[in-house]
């Protein structure tokens, strides 16, 4: 039981958990009350979209695409509210049944309801000429691709570029994974109103590309009884801020935490500069560097204590970061084994992950560690480590590798997924695509190592807390990408690092309620 204190915008539930939370809420409420809450919120967002598009709701043309289930019911009741405010609302029924109460409510308020067959040109014309299309075809009950005539009407909406508001989830997206079974049979939403909580499909995979601007409305679901295995916690500014507090008046550089970095090599000195750049802004009071690029590191960052020697001789730290650009030779292998033997948190990135995948002794040394281990693969490194590609269910894949290796796993990507061996899982999903630039992962590794060292210096980390910190680091890294890309600027990894202080400040300014 882990859901205490979560907000709708941070709770990512499986469909099964949503169903149970809804059932528990419904048991306490009058019949239909949850759907009315959902429909009211939906009508508010639709109303504001219509004001943006046509200046007002009265006289605007709204088309509802209505499937067989409660998702269609939400659309119909919201349509009834818009019709009551003077919108011209047409409901197009695309399934062989529909929510009868919703359709009656729409008709009572002056809306029209009609059944649509494939090739119905009148229906296509209504979609093409609408000011707003509301997608109530499928919600969390959807399975697989849209069927006809829904797929065809979704295509008409896409091709005519009409504004689309998705109810709970863009139809045709798998709610739990974000998988899209057929790229030609899915709704592309400009906005999505999610009810009660998030679903992974809104943030991950192809689903994230179909969701548009995302609003989560509170319909009164409780997360108290949601099991760890059914929950992913989304990190936002409010949840990250408490973990980014600045030093206290009694702190010195050691009490703030010492992070060690062994990255880069003669061939790749840049990775050392970038990883230490990240480490300088992750709250640790002291950054050590041990490796071949010590001269380049000091030339860039005079505050980093950089030496050419071994990890084992570099002095005490509260976390080591090993791997980025470190190489695959015997010397790099020694750095990983040295660090693995220490009893402090260890972050392995890039080449260290490849060594772990290729060398059974390295893998065994890492798996046998008693201290917290954090692995930060991208999809390619993940596949090498796991022996299979990530696949469509990123959350399940990351949880499974974390459990197998007894390590926290952070899988990088447009959304970053983190899991601890016990199943605690997190997602950071607001990074801009500008982060997809060489070396930005090195900055993340340094940043996260620094955050781990800082927190380890205050209280020994357990894997679940390390996983939370990993997601916080990914969130701050994403925020730095956004700061760096502000005003349409181009972004390099060094720009991401340079934006970290402003990103930390931005996240700290958020004030959780
Ligand atoms: N249960 C509740 O308390 C609440 C549910 N709400 C809404 O209810 C939705 C879930 O409703 P339902 O459980 O009725 O499910 P949906 O409305 O998502 O759709 C399920 C129906 O579609 C059919 N179907 C599934 N995949 C299909 C496909 N690929 N092509 C064509 N038909 C397909 C199913 O056989 C089923 O009849 C949520 O997403 C949300 O919008 C909201 O009203 C809030 C309250
Ligand atoms: N499309 C994207 N949108 C947002 N962030 C992305 C995207 N693609 C990659 N990222 C992020 O950029 C970073 C790239 O890291 P990585 O793949 O390790 O690159 P490198 O090894 O060059 O440093 C990761 O933090 C990843 O999450
Ligand atoms: K929908």
From TrEMBL:
Q: How is this protein named in the record?
A: Bifunctional NAD(P)H-hydrate repair enzyme
Origin species, per record, is: Longivirga aurantiaca
EC number(s): the record gives: 4.2.1.136, 5.1.99.6
* PANTHER family, per the entry: ATP-DEPENDENT (S)-NAD(P)H-HYDRATE DEHYDRATASE, ATP-DEPENDENT (S)-NAD(P)H-HYDRATE DEHYDRATASE FAMILY MEMBER
GO molecular function terms attached to this record: NAD(P)HX epimerase activity
Q: Where is the YjeF N-terminal domain?
A: 18-227
Partners and quaternary state? Homotetramer.
Q: Recite the UniProt cofactor note for this protein.
A: Binds 1 potassium ion per subunit.
Q: Where is the YjeF C-terminal domain?
A: 236-507
* Catalytic function, reaction form: (6R)-NADHX = (6S)-NADHX; (6S)-NADPHX + ADP = AMP + phosphate + NADPH + H(+); (6R)-NADPHX = (6S)-NADPHX; (6S)-NADHX + ADP = AMP + phosphate + NADH + H(+)
Q: Which residues bind AMP?
A: 412-416, 441
Q: Which UniProt keywords apply?
A: ATP-binding, Isomerase, Lyase, Metal-binding, Multifunctional enzyme, NAD, NADP, Nucleotide-binding, Potassium
Q: Which Gene3D superfamilies match?
A: 3.40.1190.20, YjeF N-terminal domain (3.40.50.10260)
């Amino acid at each position: 039981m882990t859901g205490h204190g979560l907000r709708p915008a941070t709770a990512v539930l499986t469909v099964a958990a949503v169903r149970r939370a809804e059932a528990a809420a419904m048991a306490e409420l009058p019949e239909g009350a949850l759907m009315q809450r959902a429909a009211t919120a939906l009508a508010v967002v639709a109303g504001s979209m219509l004001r943006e598009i046509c200046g007002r709701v009265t006289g605007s043309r709204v088309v509802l695409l209505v499937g067989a289930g409660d998702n269609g019911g939400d659309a119909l009741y919201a349509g009834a509210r818009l019709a009551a405010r003077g919108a011209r609302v047409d409901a197009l029924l695309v399934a062989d049944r529909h929510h009868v109460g919703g359709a009656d409510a729409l008709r009572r308020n002056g809306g029209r309801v009609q059944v649509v067959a494939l090739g119905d040109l009148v229906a296509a014309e209504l979609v093409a000429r609408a000011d707003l299309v509301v997608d109530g075809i499928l919600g969390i009950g959807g399975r697989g691709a849209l069927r006809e005539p829904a797929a065809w009407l979704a295509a008409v909406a896409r091709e005519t570029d009409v504004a689309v508001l998705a109810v709970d989830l863009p139809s045709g997206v798998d709610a739990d994974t974000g998988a899209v079974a057929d790229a030609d049979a899915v709704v592309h939403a400009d906005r999505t109103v999610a009810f009660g909580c998030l679903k992974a499909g809104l943030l991950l995979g192809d689903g994230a590309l179909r969701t548009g601007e995302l609003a989560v409305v509170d319909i009164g679901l409780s997360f108290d009884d949601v099991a760890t295995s059914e929950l992913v916690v989304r990190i936002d500014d409010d949840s990250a801020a408490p973990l980014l507090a600045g030093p206290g008046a009694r702190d010195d550089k050691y009490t703030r935490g010492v992070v060690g970095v062994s990255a880069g090599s003669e061939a790749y000195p840049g990775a050392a500069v970038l990883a230490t750049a990240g480490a300088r802004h992750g709250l640790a009071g002291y950054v050590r560097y041990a490796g071949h690029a010590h001269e380049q590191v000091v030339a860039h960052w005079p505050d980093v204590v950089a030496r050419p020697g071994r990890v084992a001789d570099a002095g005490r730290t509260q976390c080591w970061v090993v791997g980025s650009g470190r190489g695959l030779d015997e010397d790099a292998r020694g750095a990983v084994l040295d660090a693995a033997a220490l009893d402090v948190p260890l972050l392995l990135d890039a080449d260290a992950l490849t060594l772990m995948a290729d060398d059974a002794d390295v893998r065994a040394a890492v798996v046998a560690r008693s201290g917290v281990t954090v692995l930060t693969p991208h999809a390619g490194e993940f596949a090498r480590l796991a022996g299979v590609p990530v696949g469509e269910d990123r959350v399940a894949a990351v949880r499974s590798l974390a459990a197998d290796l007894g390590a926290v796993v952070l899988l990088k990507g447009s959304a970053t997924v983190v899991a601890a061996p016990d199943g605690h899982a997190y997602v950071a999903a607001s990074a801009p695509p500008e982060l997809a630039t060489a070396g930005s992962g090195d900055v993340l590794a340094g940043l996260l190592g620094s955050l781990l060292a800082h927190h380890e210096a205050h209280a020994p980390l357990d894997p679940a807390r390390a996983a939370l910190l990993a997601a916080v680091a990914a969130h701050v890294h994403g925020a730095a990408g956004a700061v760096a890309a502000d005003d349409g600027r181009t972004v390099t990894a060094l720009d991401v690092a340079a934006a970290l202080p402003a990103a930390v400040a931005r996240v700290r300014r958020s004030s959780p309620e």
